[in-house]
Amino acid sequence: MTRRTRLPRTALVGGAVLAMALSMSACGGDDSASGDDKIHVLVYGDATNKVEKQLIATFNKTSKVKAVLDTIPGADYQAKLQTIINSKQAPDVFFNWGGGSIKPFVDAGLLLPLDDFIAKDPGLKDNFLPSVFNSTVVDGKAYGIPMRGTQPVLMFNNSKVLKDNGLTAPKTWDELVNAAKVLKSKGVTPIALGGGDKWPTLMWFEYLYDRVAGPELFQSALKGDKDVWASDDSKAALNKLKELIDAGAFGTNFDSVKFTDGGSPTLLATGKAAFELMGSWEYSTLQDSQPDFAKSDLDYSAFPAVDGGKGAPTDIVGNTNNFYSVLKKTKHPEAVAEFLKLQYSDQFVKSQLSIGNLPTTTNTEAQLDGAASPDYARFQYDLVKNAPSFQLSWDQAYPQTAGTALTTAVQQFFNGGIDVDGFIKAMQALPTS
Amino acid sequence: MTTTATAVSADSKGVERSGRRPGRSREGAGRPGFAWAAPAAVFFGLFAIVPLALVVALSFASWNGLSDPEFAGLDNWKKLFDDPIMIKSLWLSLLLTLLGVVVQTPLSILLGVWAAGHQRNRAVLSAIYFVPLLLSATAVSVLWRAVLDPNFGVPAHAKWLFGDGNLFGMQSSAIGVLIFVSTWQFTPLHTLIYQGAARSVPRVLYQAAEIDGAGRYRQFFHITLPQLRNSVVTSMILMVVGGLTTFDTVLILTQGGPGTDTTISAYYMYQKAFKSFDYGAASAIGVMLILVATIISLVMVRLTGYDKMNSTMEGM
After folding, report:
1. Binary contact (A252, B278; C-beta < 8 A)
2. Chain A residue closest to B67 (CA)?
3. What interface predicted TM-score (ipTM) does this complex get?
4. In terms of CA atoms, which chain B residue is nearest residue A3?
5. Degrees (nearest 5) of the Cα angle A99, A173, B169?
């Protein structure tokens, strides 16, 4: 081979490699989702998917346009959804938490307001509990249909520990503070807290602010009124919380404990702690990991009332539910509307109840006896039904850009890193749009 | 000496083989042309240069991943330098890196030199010792998180040492855990580097030293250590680059907490990109990290004379 022939050969090899690399990098883009005669339903991947699979099978029996279920494993859901939602692979219908979790999509003009669907079939709204349905209303328009179970935050307790120390589930804040003092003197950590995860700590703020200042304070803050954080009510709520922390109610190592690796539920189950404030999933978590304890000594109550506070003692906080929202560019809106109707069907309610979820449809009540734990299901259902306000978790209600700063401030307030004024300043700095 | 000898003979065989290769022009014998480098160059361009250019471009834009990126001028950069968490995160990255180098270097030199011996027990022990290297950082972090649980892990049984076990609730102990875990995981890699280097030190040097009456410690400090010089630089550059880009251990062990006390730059970049969906700010942090890492590597290479590629065999 002479020098003359070398260059073309070099170019050839380089070109071939380039073509190969390009075709490799492009193969992620071939799988177009909305180009075919199907609707794609994207859901958070977990154990509840078996209900979603059943419903889609039911839907496909009668529908000409077939539905396909796509799942993304839980921890990656939000990030991956955000990556694909404005691309060719965008689904037609997707799972979300309502509130701030869909606001960026609404702002970017990607979502379909469901008001037309509701006008044609009022059941899409009327068959759901109003306090839950409302958490997908953005700028006066409905953008979602509830599609799983509600998850109010409850005070769980180890009834054996309480009985051994002559205590009962606290109905008022003062009873809770008193119980904490008694338990601490007996060497029991009064309240288990998975502070390492940060969001369990946030639950204490959500309830205290509601009880002391009423739900309006947070709603104003969310609308951009930053002054409310510096109000007397806000300070009162923080001081009450500080009192409880300083009394040693959470022990000293809560920031090293997590809920997600089973740390804090195990504290409760083994009697090393007496209470845990947690979403209603605590029950099924403990049924899995500590079945004996869940059967015999696990008890629950509503969050205590605060004397002189503005919020109703029946107000609740938590994840109101999960929702299906619809993309504007779906090619089969009629099929999607039909699919959404399944979310209040008797079959849906029955399947959700059988796996321990509590749907928020009006026909749920009649079927509560078929739940995995009828008493627990009824307690929760009444709680949600009778709540004048159901505050969506702050980290879901705020825009995503605020999430990290919010949970950081919450953790720092609990471990003494910042004081009342520091917390107020941090909250005022959060972006609200 | 045996290893060096076999390496040399293998090399010469290789040269012979390529020399005899049919169809090669005489002028380019044994010297690969550009075509040989083309695949690597193309891949490097596609997967390193192009993304890098995009990240630099993105650092001057505002983008939430949904609408089109908008040109934002120097906004991200201005915010970056006004952001106390960013400044703190950079210091934390440097601190973690420095601590990593300081702790791991002596440890891995000693282990590597020890493991370079030929006794049978050393081979077995070394094999066991290299296990952490095979585990993913994620698995390692999950494992240590469980072992260090304050109520059910080791701290609960050693209260005299750990107190209330609040290791992840204080900055000093959280950093301590991060250093400990990365040392546990990465010392084997650096030990491997030093083991290889120590084995290639010519045995004649030790024989000569012994005749002159030098003891084990003198041999170590006057022969082994100087001969390992290039390996020290290699290993330290790996540690610095690895330290500055540490991410998974922080994600799983501390999540940047307590507060922002272990929010190192790489983790802060992840938070900006995939929690806050502020890709512009995240890109600016990324570019900053690249610059810092490059500067540090260059300085290290310069200061150590590594760029001259001097052989430690000089004077032999």
Report:
1. no
2. A108
3. 0.81
4. B25
5. 65
